[in-house]
Amino acid sequence: MSTTAERPVRPAVRVTIPVGGMTCAACQASVQRALSKEPGVVDAAVNLMTESAAITFDPGVTTPEALVTAIERTGYEARLPASDQNAMAEQDARDAAHAIEYRALRRRATVSGIIGLIAMVVSMPLMAASPYGHAASDPLSQWIMRALMPPLRGAAPWLFAIDPRVLSWTLLAVTVFVMTWAGRHFYIRGWAGLRRRSPDMNTLIAIGTGAAFLYSVIATAAPGLFVRHGMAPDVYYEAVIIIIAFILAGNALEARAKRNTSSALRALANLQPRTARLERAGGDVDVPIEQVRRGDIVIVRPGERIPVDGEVVSGESAVDESMLTGEWLAVPKAPGALVTGGTINRTGAFRYRATTLGDDSVLARIVRVMRDAQASRAPIQALADRISAIFVPTVLTIAAATFVIWLVLAGEGAMARALAASVSVLIIACPCAMGLAVPTAVMVATGRGAQLGVLIKGGEALQRAGDVTLVALDKTGTVTEGRPTVTDVIALPNGAARDDSELLQLAASLESVSEHPLAEAIVRHARGRGLPVEAPTEFTAYPGRGVRATAMGRKVAIGNAALMTELGIDVSRLDGQLDAVASAGKTPVMLAVDGRLAGLLAITDPIRPTAAETVKALRQRGLGVVLITGDHERTALAIARQAGIDQVVAGVSPEGKVAEIERLRAAGNIVAMVGDGINDAPALASADVGIAIGTGTDVAIEAADVALMRGDPRGIVDAIDLSRRTMRTMRQNLFWAFVYNVIGIPIAAGALYPAFGILLNPIFASAAMAFSSVSVVTNSLRLRV
Q1: Which residues are catalytic?
Q2: Which of 49, 234, 251, 401 could be joined to 439 by an S-S link, Cβ 3.0–4.6 Å?
Q3: pTM for this model (two decimals)
């Protein structure tokens, strides 16, 4: 027997840590490898686009502070995340940082570009003086020489009269300025990448431009060294400057595009007002939102945004909830109705009691889910990660091989051409595009989903939803409205209840402590008829079947035929009524009193107006549809006919729903389960994709992968369509990112030279690199419409 106490098992915790300084897929891979090696880390997903790391860890082994330290050891910046309550402030700070970054990059790119153009003009006399240098090594330089040299000679003959050594030293000084001011971060980060044995995009840029600069410095300081070996002392200062300018311009455009991808999250974070008007003894007073407490009475006037969640206590109005649900029709609000912080009061004024605040509010939870989703990774990202892990070392090897091959085989001007080709290889290679291909699409898609009222909880769910082949629909609250109404109360002659009123009163008393929609309908109907309702005792629930308790001094059970059979009660006397009620699309609920059958209640739940439209749309997309319900088979078939559903599974318990989902999956289907109740949560969790109707319970929404923020099943179609569009975009991004490098690197190395005499100028290479990253982000932004 062990004498040491075992450490208690604690549930894993998830935290999303902001990470700064990442610029490409290789950076992302470096941070991810470091986190994956940390003790206690269960899973780590580093996202270049959101500049964050979503980490699941064992709190008994490590802490968020230790994870921040682990990231900082890799050379990148990290800090603890803000609370959900401060999500708006954090998003504002992130947006401000992106705006500052964009302006700084734009300023450096503009200044470097202007200096680069001037440097190119100043370099032309040096090109003209070169017998076989880089001036004749590529089509761009040849075109420049032919097109611009004569006009420049005529306009500025004095430039050609200046000593070439003066021009070279002047260009050297200007290039040093650009490299140290505009491009300093390339060299600092590139060197840091080499030191931690994790080279990245900055390393490629630093080595490429650094090699060209070093070659040019030697040619400037010791031209005789080149002449003695039969080489022209060419300089590449203008190429270094323009390469830096192009890459900075691409980074600036990328930073602006990144900010656009977070527009939906930013809009959500900015929904909550900064102040609230509270009712006080001395009169109304405006206070900061942080000072609102649970139970405070909040006053909202027409046109104002509701500050926090709560329950209306007086007044009536209509509230625009479109920013949360995507539904533009204003929702009526009266005393007892719930209101959500961030929505807009359209018509009347009302007072309401604050209920959930801060991190527990609906808006904070939505922002948290969206932020986590955007920081997550889709499975398709794994391919890009594997390539990124070896990308930079492979490019460095190719560049070195290119230099050697050109140096050996080029003959006249070999050194100049070898340098130009190897620098082009280093500059054109772009790990950024691969790192951005998937996360940009996930980020934009989850933001677009929020605008449609579809809350997608991560990249994996987003990818799986597009692969769905069959949709399983719960009946109550999904296909139907979820607002049932009692239509018939039938007491058996000479039964356990004297009449319909006593039967209804017993049923309502028994159900008065239940939150099931059918129970609420029974209690509401009894009170509407003025019948007194007493709280039951010895209450026992039978999930998916009914309940039993002592009510009004009698042993009462209410539920379906399965419960009656389990309790040994013969229901054959009701066969005729059961068939009639079920055939009309109503739900029969039977009542037994003191062990004897007493009668039944018929409850109807009208089908949602958009249910048939949704089923038709799903079928048009090639998807199968099945109705799964615990209701009576006749009732389920009647509802299914109205919705246009052919396949029905009725009379199943919550465990039976799970078993049916597993059976459908075993048959080769990729199943999406759609439901709204507590009894749907196990099935939602067991399906390939769980979709919760937003009017349902918190348990169902938490168990689901996708939450529809409004009670409209058309959101199912929106979610699947968005997933399919996103997957197409991801594949396009990855395809072009890979093809760009597969085609661009060989061209830069000189693959076209033997057949066509074409070499890629390093300046063209830098422009192509800048364009590749921007094109991936821009393609993803198309998902916003």
Answers
A1: 474
A2: 49
A3: 0.70
